[in-house]
Amino acid sequence: MENLLANLTSLAVGVGGKLVLALLIFIIGRMIINRIVGLFERGKMMDKMDPTVKTFMLNFIKIGLNIVLVISIIGVLGVPMASVVAVLASAGLAVGMALQGALSNLAGGIMLLVFRPFNVGDYIVAAGDEGIVKEITLFYTVLTTTDNKKVTIPNGSLMNANVTNCSSEEFRRVDLTFGLGKGNDIEKVRGVMLDVMQKHPLVLDHPDVPFARVSGGTNEAMEFTTRAWCKSADYWTVYFDLCGQITNALGEAGVAGPAVKVING
Question: Which of 17, 106, 114, 209 has the fewest C-beta atoms under 10 angstroms from its C-beta?
C-alpha cells in the first residue's frame, strides 16, 4: 500500500510538474509571439511591403509561430510525436471534410496574394457586395462600404466570383442619361451639356473629350447620354456634380423636361 501511494505521489508530482511547465511555456510563448509579430509589424522591411502582402505575411507568421508553440507544449507533456502524427493521420479525412470551407478560404487567400486582382485601399464590387478593401487575411477579405459598414467576405467566395476593381485604372468614365421633352432643339441641348462638362475642373479631355448625344427615346421624350472622363479618385464627385449642374443648366436654358401623358379617369 505504501509503495502504491509513493508511486501515485511520484506520478502526480511528475504530471503536475509537466503541466506547470507546459502552462509557463504557453504564457511565455504567447508573450514572445506577440513581441516577434510586433517587431515584424514595426520593422523597416514591412514598411516597404505592399499593404496587402504585409497583412498576409503577418497572419502567416503568427499562425506559424503558434503551431511551433503547440508542438513544443506537446513535447514537454511527454506525448510521443509518432503517436500525435498517427492520430492526426487517422483523423485527417474527418478533419479535412470539417475544414473544407476553411481550407477553401485559405487557398483563396493564397491565390489572391499571388494573382492580386485587388489591393488594400481599392474599391471593388464582388460577391454581391462593394466597398473599399481594408484588410486581406488568410481566410477573409474585409470591406468598408460607403456608409461605413464592415463586410467580411470569405476568400474562397471571392476567387469564384466576378470581381470588378474600380480603382485599378487611373481614369474612369462617368456615364449619365437624361430624359428631355421631344420638342427640344437637339443641338442646343447638346451644347448646354458639353459646356457644363468642359467647364468642370475635374473633367479631363483624355482618354477622350466629353460626349453628349441622343441615345434613344419614346413618343413623348428624348433620351440623352453624356460621357465624361476623370481620375478614378474623383469619380463620385464628378458624377454628382454633373447630375446637378447639367440639370440646372438645362433649366436655365429653357429646355423642357419629358412630356407627361395624362390619362383622364
Answer: 114
Which burial class, exposed, middle or buried, applies to 177 when counting CB atoms under 10 A from its CB (0-12, 13-18, 19+)? Answer: exposed
Q: Quick one: pLDDT at residue 234?
A: 94
Render pLDDT for 46-96 as a digit per residue (tens, 0 to 9).
666 767 677 777 877 888 888 888 878 877 777 676 666 666 666 665 656
Domain 103-165: give its CATH code. Answer: 2.30.30.60
Share of the chain above pLDDT 90, in %: 37
CATH topology of domain 2-90: Helix Hairpins (1.10.287)
At the second CATH level, the architecture of 171-252 is: 2-Layer Sandwich (3.30)
Rounded-to-integer distance, Cα 114 and Cα 56, Å: 11
